[in-house]
Amino acid sequence: QARLVESGGGLVQAGGSLRLSCAATGLTFSRYAVAWFRQAPEKERDFVAAIRWTGHNKSYADSVKGRFTISRDNTNNTVYLQMNSLKPEDTAVYSCAADRFGLGSRRIVDYEYRGQGTQVTVSS
């Protein structure tokens, strides 16, 4: 059974860094586009970043561009989100999603598999 599991969240001070991981089991992960989304309390889920299944194209939300980097390690079936210069407004539950042969859509409905998420809290 296919499954995505996020890890790496936690509490960090503003200006700090975290690296999130999205590990897949039951999938040939290299054939999947993977995206990160986040949802803050009482807010809608927002797109954060995506990487195509080919690994050559990446896209970012304007709010994280220049601070966050998405990457993938297909050997280990894992996608990472490196988050630098974190701000209190980055506080949210971050979740990953996978779309077979996807092109990195910004819409969560385009992804077949989704993880449960990991909490990121940035203190001021």
The oligomeric state is single chain
How confident overall, as mean pLDDT? 96
Instruction: Please give the radius of gyration in angstroms.
Output: 13 Å
Question: What is the number of E strands?
Answer: 11
Brief characterization of the structure:
By secondary structure, the chain is mainly β. The chain is 0% helix and 51% strand.
Report what the structure shows.
The chain starts with a strand and ends with a strand. The model has no long low-confidence stretch (mean pLDDT 96). The chain is built from no helices and 11 strands. Helix content is 0%, strand content 51%. The chain has strands spanning 3-7, 10-13, 18-25, 32-39, 46-51, 58-60, 68-73, 78-83, 92-100, 113-114, 118-123. It is globular and about 40 Å long. It is mainly beta and 124 residues long. The strands form 2 sheets. Strands 2, 4, 5, 6, 9, 10 and 11 form a 7-stranded mixed sheet that branches. Strands 1-3-8-7 form a 4-stranded antiparallel sheet, with no helix packed on it.
